[in-house]
Structure formats: structure tokens, C-alpha cells
Design goal:
single chain; 2 domains; Rossmann fold; 10 helices; alpha/beta; Elongation Factor Tu (Ef-tu), domain 3; elongated
């Protein structure tokens, strides 16, 4: 898959079948849409192209720190690549793009820039200034120019709930991780690199691995039962904390994981933390001794959770 940043780079030289969207989470609805584009492109000797924005429009208007993403760019890139897409095009969402009319968006970006011959969009997609562009406008403008347009109906759950990134965030807020796995098609996880922290956990007899979230907004917060997967595919159980560590005046958001029965040096390694159950909210304790006791209780609850879960669930972790 070739990554194209447009308009910074040259227009795509080959004819394409494309789709456009935020694709945050690359959930089952997104996957169905992208697979349809890939299949159409192969059957019609075109190149498949997935078009998104960086930053997302919501991040541009609200600020990156205020928009919790299901999948940051690197994760989204690999998930889309796994669907056998030829081109992943990122549009620079700035003032110029925000002010671009829907018709100019079609003409300048989709047709001239990305050489679209066939466009497939979700039934809720809107584009152009004030989001006035829709499937009807696409057909009205593109069909006379020989460009075909189609849309895919919303993917719905058995309870008639539409699969969407916002729906997934709502269920993450309730820590309903099994539901989220059902809609994402994989377990919700956070990926990152293990960095060296202040090593406070060692003084409490619970050494942790630290994954800095920098300015990234994440859709969950608190203490969780997790599985930790390293790049060598080894998987361990753990108790994870996402938050600002108020007891020690931590400040910035951080993901910390105490890995059960683990004693290895892993600084600098890439790691994936998969979330299974929320134990509690993050709170501020009056002393480090109280914090230590609470961590001890959290670890016991983590062991209990996985001991019970393993009695009924034996399927392996999904590969990302």
C-alpha cells in the first residue's frame, strides 16, 4: 500500500476506485466498505484508494487533545493496509480544505487529484464546506462525467444499532469491551513503545511498564484487567492504569501496566495492551501506603478475573 499525502504530493497517475471517510477504529462497517472498494477495483482493473484526513475535521475544529481516537494514525495505517488497499490518501485538513465547496472537493480532489473512476461511500458521509455534499450531489456531478457512484448501507447490529465510531466510544465509556470487540472485529487495544519512567512502581513492589500517550486523547480512563502482547507474540496478563496518577501529581496522561509473573527488561520494545475489564476509576490516595494496598487489591482482582474467564473462554487472541 502506498501512502499519498495530497495536495502536497503529485496527483495519483492511475485510475482509481475510492472511498472517503474518517475510518476511526476501522470497525466492521469500515471494513465492509473498504473491502467493497478493493473488490470493485480488482474486477475493473483499477487501483483501490482509501481517502481520509489528517488531522480529522473534528480534531481541526475542537483540538487534538479533545478528540479521543480509537485508532491513531499508525494503527489505522496498518489496519487499512491489511485489507489489501493500493493507495491510502491523507488530505491535509486545514483552513483551505475546510472552506472548499462540495463541488470543488469533487472536482479538484476526487476527480483531478485522485483520478476517481468509481466512488463508494457510506450512507452517512458528508463533505465540503458546511458538510453540504452527499450521495445525491456526488451522483449529480459525477455521472455526466463518466464516473460511477455507489453507496453501502449502514452495517447494523442485531439490536438495530448502527455500527459507528461514536457508538463504540459510548460502549468503551461503559467499559463494555466484549461488545466493542464484536463491532471492531478485534479486541480494543493501545499500542506503543515501552519507555523508562520514574520507577515509582518498584518502590511499591509493583514495577510497571510505561507507555507514554503524549498529547493523545484516549477514550478510556481508570484501572483495567489487560493482556500484554510483545512484538515476539508472547502474551502476559496484567493490571493497567490509564490516567494522570493524581496520588503522585503525575500530570500528563500515561498508560502503566503491572505485568503478572514477569521479570524482563523490555525498554524500547513495542507492545500492545488489550483491554478486557474495568476494575475501578482512578482516584487520589492520601498516602503511598494506601496506593500500594489498592494496587495489591487490583492485582488480586485481575488474577481472579482471568482465572474465571479462562474457565469458559479458550480461544486465542486475535492477531492485529
Amino acid at each position: 500500500m502506498k501512502l499519498v499525502r495530497y495536495p502536497q504530493q503529485q496527483p495519483i497517475p492511475c485510475k482509481t476506485a475510492l472511498t472517503i471517510g474518517n475510518f476511526d477504529g476501522v470497525h466492521l462497517g469500515h471494513q465492509a466498505l473498504i473491502k467493497r472498494v478493493v473488490d470493485y477495483a480488482k474486477k475493473n482493473e483499477l487501483k483501490s484508494c482509501v481517502v481520509s484526513m489528517q488531522p480529522l475535521a473534528s480534531q481541526y475544529f475542537m483540538g487534538k487533545e479533545n478528540v479521543p481516537l480509537l485508532t491513531p494514525f499508525k494503527c489505522k495505517y496498518h489496519l487499512i493496509k491489511a485489507l489489501n488497499v493500493d493507495y491510502y490518501c491523507l488530505l491535509n485538513f486545514n483552513k483551505n480544505l475546510a472552506e472548499l465547496s462540495a463541488v470543488d472537493f469533487i472536482e479538484e480532489i476526487l476527480l483531478k487529484g485522485l483520478n476517481a473512476q468509481h466512488i463508494i461511500i457510506g450512507d452517512d458521509f458528508r463533505f465540503g464546506k458546511n458538510r453540504v455534499g452527499d450521495i445525491a450531489l456526488l451522483k449529480q456531478y459525477c455521472l455526466p462525467r463518466g464516473v460511477t457512484v455507489a453507496h453501502i448501507n449502514t452495517v447494523v447490529e442485531k439490536d438495530n444499532a448502527r455500527i459507528s465510531s461514536s457508538l463504540i466510544r459510548k460502549h468503551l465509556d461503559k467499559s463494555e469491551f466484549d461488545f466493542v470487540e464484536h463491532t471492531l472485529g478485534r479486541r480494543f487495544s493501545i499500542l506503543g513503545r515501552v519507555s523508562k519512567g520514574k520507577q515509582l512502581g518498584r518502590t511499591l513492589d509493583f514495577p510497571t511498564i510505561n507507555i507514554k500517550l503524549k498529547n493523545r486523547a484516549v477514550p478510556i480512563n481508570g484501572i483495567f484487567c489487560v493482556k500484554v502482547k510483545f512484538s515476539d507474540a508472547e502474551t502476559y496478563l496484567g493490571a493497567a492504569s490509564i490516567g494522570t496518577r493524581p496520588t503522585v501529581n503525575g500530570g500528563s496522561n500515561l498508560l502503566e501496566v503491572y505485568i503478572l509473573d514477569f521479570n524482563k527488561q523490555v525498554y524500547g520494545q513495542n507492545v500492545e495492551v488489550l483491554f478486557y475489564h474495568k476494575i475501578r476509576n482512578e482516584v487520589k490516595f492520601d498516602s503511598l501506603s494506601e496506593l500500594k494496598q489498592q494496587i495489591y487489591d487490583d492485582v488480586l482482582k485481575t488474577r481472579h478475573f482471568f482465572n474465571n474467564k479462562n474457565k469458559t473462554i479458550t480461544e486465542p487472541l486475535r492477531e492485529q
